[in-house]
Amino acid sequence: KNRVSKPGFLSYTGSMDRRLFKQVFIASIFILIVAVPVYFGFFSGKAEPTPAPGPIIAEPVILLEKLFMVSDFDYDFFVQIRNSNTGFGASQVSYELRLFDSAGQTVFEKSDSTFLLPGQTRYEIISPISLDAEAADFDFRLTGADWQKVTEFVLPSLLSLKNVNYSEVRPPEQGFSKLTGAVSNGSNFDFEIADVYAVLFDDRNDPIAVSKTDIRTFLSKTERFFEVKWFSPFDGEVSRFEVSPYTNVLRNDNFIKEHGTQERFQEFY
User: Fold this and answer.
1) Contact 237, 203 (CB under 8 A)
2) What b/e string do you get for 60-81 counting C-beta neighbours within 10 Å, with b at 16 or more?
3) Model confidence pLDDT, tens digit, residues 43-97
4) Which of 156, 84, 79 is closest to 120 using CA atoms?
5) CA dist 266 to 127, 149, 255, Å?
6) Beta sheet of 137-149, edge-to-edge order
7) Which DSSP state fits 43?
8) Omega before 128 cis (within 30°)?
């Protein structure tokens, strides 16, 4: 006997089977897409770790800069730079200085470097500058820094000042005025060179003159006399002065060798 089914029953059931199959198929593909990367990433051990972000190092900031005319076509340049990084110092900070005449032509160009200790604000003085024409403008810019992470660094009183005095020069001594004093090396290290920078300010706290000198072969626990001099009068009355001794403890070649080995001030890398 022929089995008679109700109209539409077989058609309805077949449609449900195809829809269920389609849903299962799509779900299987989705599971594979998710599961395969998870497996290879976490169980195969071949996933590469995400690299840790590098340290954020703030660029040094120029706080103050000024060009001084010492005499006809002779100049001094002064700049104040701040390093806000307390954990990083730069053994070498490159810079460029250009001077221009009234027509905008370059009459002087110098590329050199200085250094910045962690958290340090310091002066840099470029002197003397002798030209063949009058300078009308300047451009100073920092062009790069060799940053080093410094560990266990505490800026000590490596170099301290004693008996600093400013006075005008009296005949028969030559010159206009001078700063004298002594620098003491209180550290346990001998330095090849230490710089001594002097800045004079007027009653408005504006710098009106600068000068510099250096101390060579500065031995530990010793005291050295210094004198910086101005041979030409300058505009303004001296209200106060700053004297800053600097030595680069981030460069090994600044430490005098003992017993054939290079001394080091602090550990850094």
Assistant:
1) yes
2) beeeebbbbebeeeebbbbbbb
3) 555 556 666 777 899 999 999 999 999 998 999 999 999 999 989 999 999 999 9
4) 84
5) 31, 11, 12
6) 106-116, 88-100, 137-149
7) I
8) yes
Letter for the amino acid at 198? A
Query: How much is the pTM?
Result: 0.76
Q: Are 73 and 62 in contact (CB under 8 A)?
A: no
Measured between alpha carbons, how far is 137 from 135 in angstroms, rounded to an integer? 6
Q: For residue 138, what pLDDT is reported?
A: 97
Residue 123, CB-side half-sphere exposure with 13 Å CA sphere? 22
Rounded to 5°, angle at Cα 14 from 10 and 20: 150
Enter the tokens of residue 203: 């009653």
CA distance 210 to 148: 30
CA-based nearest residue to 78, from 182, 229, 201, 181: 201
Model confidence pLDDT, tens digit, residues 206-220: 999 999 999 999 999
Tell me whether the omega of the peptide bond preceding residue 49 falls within 30 degrees of 0, making it cis.
no
Q: Say how far apart CA 111 and CA 113 lie, in whole Å.
A: 7
Average per-residue pLDDT in the chain?
83
Single out the residue of 178, 166, 158, 184 nearest to residue 249, CA to CA: 158
